[in-house]
Design a protein that fits this description.
This protein is an all-beta fold. It folds into 5 domains: 157 residues, Complement Module, domain 1 (Ribbon), CATH 2.10.70.10; 69 residues, Complement Module, domain 1 (Ribbon), CATH 2.10.70; 70 residues, Complement Module, domain 1 (Ribbon), CATH 2.10.70.10; 62 residues, Rubrerythrin, domain 2; 57 residues, no CATH class. The chain contains 1 helix and 37 strands. A 4-stranded antiparallel β-sheet has the order 1-2-3-5, with no helix packed on it. It has a 4-stranded antiparallel β-sheet with strand order 26-27-29-30, with no helix packed on it.
Length: 452
């Protein structure tokens, strides 16, 4: 006689496991729950009076073995074993983490073998499962094991900022102060290694950046990049060459311009590094007072030291011109009298004019002679008597009667008589007398025989 053949049984359970790459995967598979120990190759393994030993698999209860014997009734002597999963206590509380998800294979038996929970870390913390690694996981799954305990759960630790202390100290021209570490909530201060000569490249108004390792694994303002570019040497802008507005009077037109009065030695363009010293010199026509510095210096404030400026060379009094008077003066600086680029205007006396330009006014400007390094007045044209145009000829028209002897008819004849001026075809200087005479048969009733 034979009893029913006994075969091992399995239970389908879902579980989870961590791959070598740090990725969690969920799996569903059949786990053995009942084992029967006998020699399956024995043809009498289920024959009358044959004994089989059974027990529950690891993770299942009861743990005691059960002996089954095939009876004459062709039934096994004991009921077949029924295994159930071992129970775990409630999942442990983990500092700086919380249970985000829990999975029970059976709602009737919470926290049993192969059930699992998912922990998530609070911001700024991770599970570090590889010793010495600076990369962790924000999620960790723990399974109820066959020994009724929860699988290993690493204690969450503060995350690491991606920029290490070596990265920070490698930033150009930056000194790292008070660095407490590179993990979450660690702090450091960044300053230019020489605050006198250097400044932060992108935020030159800042003298120091106090940074903290934040929950996103970045330091304060790291994304904004305000300190990541490091420090650069301070620069003063290109020196501003002082200019003074002047009007220079020309014959064709007046020229108004800003005259540079200083040049740097050597001449430079573009920004200059802090503490650069440049000599200064006055341009032609100007001189530097003894109290003015001979150089300008780029200061730590990125400003140049001040320069008192140059002074225009003085001119002599404007020349006097016979038969003219000085009508007015033009001084670029009213408080100064007759300096470089100033102008004086001359007006002619009555009856005179300036030669060449042939008008009754002229000017002289004070300019600079670079050969003799002196000021001089431009030429004032000599005076000449004004010219009168040819005088108008006074004419008188008469009608003279005339008889035709043949027809005895009177014919009128017109005759024009003019005043003769000698010489009549020239323009003469003012104050020159011209003689006049009347034609025959006429006289000047007032006795005038000349005009001026």
């Amino acid at each position: 006689k034979r009893c029913p053949v006994l075969t091992n049984t399995t239970l389908s359970l879902s579980s989870t496991e961590l791959s070598a790459s740090g990725t969690w995967t969920s799996t569903s598979q059949n786990y053995p729950d009942v084992f029967y120990y006998y020699d399956s190759s024995d043809p009498y393994c289920n024959a009358f009076n044959y004994t089989v030993i059974s027990h529950c698999a690891d993770g299942f209860l009861p743990e005691a073995e059960r002996i089954l014997t095939c009876l004459d009734s062709k039934n096994w002597s004991n009921s077949l074993p029924s295994c159930y999963r071992k129970s775990c206590s409630a999942p442990p509380e983990i500092p700086n983490a919380y249970i985000d998800l829990q999975f029970n294979n059976s709602a009737a038996s919470p926290w049993s073998y192969m059930d699992y929970v998912v922990y998530k870390t609070v911001p700024g913390y991770e599970f570090f499962y590889v010793p010495g690694s600076t990369d962790g996981l924000t999620e960790w799954r723990s399974v109820c094991l066959e020994n009724a305990s929860w699988a290993y759960i690493p204690t969450p630790e503060r995350i690491y900022c991606k920029l290490s202390d070596q990265n920070l100290t490698a930033i150009a021209n930056v000194t790292v102060l008070n660095l407490t570490g590179r993990r979450y909530q660690d702090n450091a201060s960044l300053v230019c290694f020489n605050s006198t000569t250097h400044e932060f490249s992108l935020r030159n108004d800042e003298l120091q950046f106090d940074i903290t390792c934040m929950a996103d694994k970045r330091w304060t303002d790291e994304i904004a990049g305000v300190w990541i570019a490091g420090c650069r040497i301070k620069m003063c802008p290109s020196p501003t060459i002082p200019t003074v507005p002047y009007q220079i009077v020309r014959e064709s037109s007046n020229v108004s311009q800003n005259l540079a009065i200083i040049t740097t030695v050597p001449p430079v363009t573009g920004a200059q590094t802090v503490f650069t010293e440049l000599g200064v010199a006055c341009l032609e026509g100007f001189w530097r007072p003894a109290s003015a510095p001979a150089a300008i210096i780029c200061q730590a404030s990125k400003n140049w030291t001040s320069f008192e400026g140059c002074i225009r060379h003085a001119c002599t009094e404007p020349p006097t011109v016979e038969h003219s008077i000085i009508g007015r003066n033009y001084s670029n600086l009213p408080e100064e009298r007759f300096r470089l680029y100033d102008t004086t205007y001359y007006d002619s006396e009555p009856g005179y004019r300036f030669s060449v330009v042939e008008r009754n006014w002229h000017f002289a400007s004070c300019l600079w002679n670079s050969t003799s390094n002196t000021t001089y007045w431009t030429e004032v044209y000599r005076m000449e008597l004004r010219k009168c145009s040819a005088p108008s000829v006074v004419t008188t028209t008469y009608t003279i009667p005339k008889w035709n002897s043949t027809t005895n008819i009177r014919l009128n004849q017109t005759k024009t008589v003019q005043l003769t001026v000698l010489p009549s075809n020239l323009s003469l200087d003012c104050f020159t007398w011209n003689n006049i005479s009347c034609e025959e048969g006429h006289y000047e009733p007032n006795g005038i025989d000349s005009i001026q």
